[in-house]
Specification:
alpha/beta; two-stranded parallel ribbon; 8 strands
Length: about 325
């Protein structure tokens, strides 16, 4: 793997540099920032504020490919190798990062690993009753749920870390970054409180997903229960008869009015679950896990907060 990464890196040096949107530190050079996923990208933009013009911000996962299936391109490796700030999730899906960082040419690079930042607050992947399990599971190795961005509480922790990193890289604008971060944190806090208020008033406290389940951190934040066809990181796409009938039974037992999916789902499993319930009258609702958000969406005004606000509207309905 290391040899493969190095060969890609050498090839990158001979290629034309990738085109990214330029948004300069005290030397007049743009601050080079690379984020692997959309939430990181948006958090950086919010904290940069007016200084976005003095930074070159790159989003690696901009093709609709989710974190679990991503492999870096030559241009991606080049972007990471020379940046000032690199932000990634960590965990099994980002194992490629170690080899890339070993070949980095910027010795002053600041690296933020979100799972590392969370420390003991990170939660392990789990298999709940009725969930499909993969054929190849290593019970001896602890694997953490990587969908850390789907918690507004986590987002506050990450934004504080990003602001601190930017203040160190560009001390001339440290006050601005601190100010922007404080304002953004207040918005995150307010939305977090709105989520809690909805849960406090809910008549239902269980979500059932006929899909993958990347919302473990969100349910942990607000004390919600869940059932799902697959774990958040599962590569499975077909649910067994046993899983379908178990989940349909839970819909009936709990009196649920909705079966959930995530964005980009074809909804077939959710519809099959509904067809196996006693009433067959449930509806399908979709929560956005931001795993397929692109720069085109950003250009159209999509932000981390806007998606989480839309998710709150969906959650409000789902908990009725």
């Amino acid at each position: 793997m290391k040899k493969y990464i190095w060969n890609l890196f050498l090839a990158a040096l001979l290629s034309v540099c990738m085109g990214t949107t330029v948004f300069a530190d005290e030397s007049g050079e743009p601050i080079q920032i690379v984020a692997t996923i959309f939430p990181e990208y948006d958090w950086v933009q919010q904290i940069l504020g007016d200084q976005a013009e003095n930074a070159e911000l790159t989003l690696l996962l901009d093709s609709g490919v989710d974190l679990h299936n991503y492999q870096p391109t030559v241009d991606d490796i080049l972007a990471v190798s020379d940046c000032d700030l690199f932000i990634y999730v960590g965990g099994e899906s980002d194992e490629w990062v170690d080899d890339v960082l070993k070949e980095a040419v910027n010795d002053d690079m600041v690296v933020l690993d979100l799972l590392e930042i969370l420390g003991n607050s990170a939660v392990e992947e789990e298999t709940v009753e009725g969930m499909e399990t993969g054929e190849e599971e290593d019970e001896e190795e602890t694997e953490y749920d990587e969908h850390v961005w789907l918690s507004l509480k986590n987002a506050q922790v990450f934004c504080e870390a990003i602001a601190e990193a930017l203040e160190g890289i560009d001390p001339d604008h440290a006050d601005l970054y601190a100010h922007n971060a404080a304002e953004y944190l207040s918005e995150l806090t307010a939305l977090d409180e709105a989520y809690q208020a909805v849960v406090d008033e809910a008549s239902v406290t269980t979500l059932l997903f006929g899909d993958r389940f990347p919302f473990r951190y969100l349910t942990e934040d607000y004390g919600l229960d869940y059932y799902a066809a697959f774990s958040g990181c599962s590569a499975e796409s077909e649910a067994s008869f046993e899983t379908i009938t178990f989940l349909a039974g839970k819909v009936d037992e709990l009196g649920l009015n909705y079966v959930m999916t995530i964005e980009s789902s074809d909804g077939k499993i959710a519809q099959t679950i509904i067809s196996c319930t006693s009433t067959q009258e449930q509806e399908v609702l979709t929560l956005n896990s931001m795993q397929s958000t692109t720069l085109q969406d950003v250009a159209e005004g999509v932000t981390y907060l806007s998606i989480m606000e839309e998710n709150l509207e969906v959650l409000t309905q789902a908990l009725q």
